[in-house]
Known about the structure:
Layout: E1 9-14, E2 17-24, H1 35-38, H2 46-59, E3 64-69, H3 83-89, E4 95-98, E5 104-110, E6 113-118, E7 124-132, E8 139-148, H4 157-162, H5 164-174, E9 177-181, H6 193-208, E10 215-218, E11 229-232, H7 233-239, E12 245-252, H8 253-264, E13 272-274, E14 286-292, H9 293-296, H10 304-311, E15 318-323, H11 324-335, E16 337-338
Amino acid sequence: xxxxxxxxxxxxxxxxxxxxxxxxxxxxxxxxxxxxxxxxxxxxxxxxxxxxxxxxxxxxxxxxxxxxxxxxxxxxxxxxxxxxxxxxxxxxxxxxxxxxxxxxxxxxxxxxxxxxxxxxxxxxxxxxxxxxxxxxxxxxxxxxxxxxxxxxxxxxxxxxxxxxxxxxxxxxxxxxxxxxxxxxxxxxxxxxxxxxxxxxxxxxxxxxxxxxxxxxxxxxxxxxxxxxxxxxxxxxxxxxxxxxxxxxxxxxxxxxxxxxxxxxxxxxxxxxxxxxxxxxxxxxxxxxxxxxxxxxxxxxxxxxxxxxxxxxxxxxxxxxxxxxxxxxxxxxxxxxxxx
Length: 339
């Protein structure tokens, strides 16, 4: 396959000192990405994984251990960012370089570990300096800081040249016309015309796949109204900013009501049921309902009842091999003029 077995750690020589680097990912992945999308990969407890890696690096006689984790700064740990508990439980770590939580945190200490996090999207660049005593080889000083990558810094000419074709192709793709909106489509309200548009697109995609669906459970992403005019793939990225796939399941009316009640407990959610009137659904009857892959895995532990229901064999849950953004793009392509 495309991947060989990844190593949990590596050792690099830096000016004659052996530095052990450990890679960790967030344990939150199973709560937003379906098993079919992980392509056989499994996500393990980062605390146990780190403990094992530190033990193995001890055999390698490293002079320092640096952990690079896709888990970041939070005032308190959560299910996806358990770094405080991890650094408390596992000793022997010198530096932790974090990510995922989109924070610029130049330096802080937790359990005597120097921690640093350089924001996201390359907005900041981080640096860590380690100083050793040459005779004893003991680590005597640790420093970390971040720098804002603003117009004081020129673009790297090697990177610009090597990615030129990729960037040009991406720009051309972004500007590809997908259709035209003839009149403003409001995105205001929980059951807005915009929400109805994307849900209709999802049902049309399922129909093309010969999958019978009677409803869609979905929300929006704080979208603005869609103004009239020609629309491009770049617009579709604004409407659907995440790489979610469509998921189909057959669930009972009682389960639908339970899922809707659970969603209402999330104050920021505008998820709603499209295609069916909740007042008319029969408790024991099974209905074909479409979800996105993120919500189907609990939406980051916000929809744990939904996750449990879709894991039941009777739900016949299946992944549809079309992502939600492409579904909307295809809907425009099929209709061109959308009202």
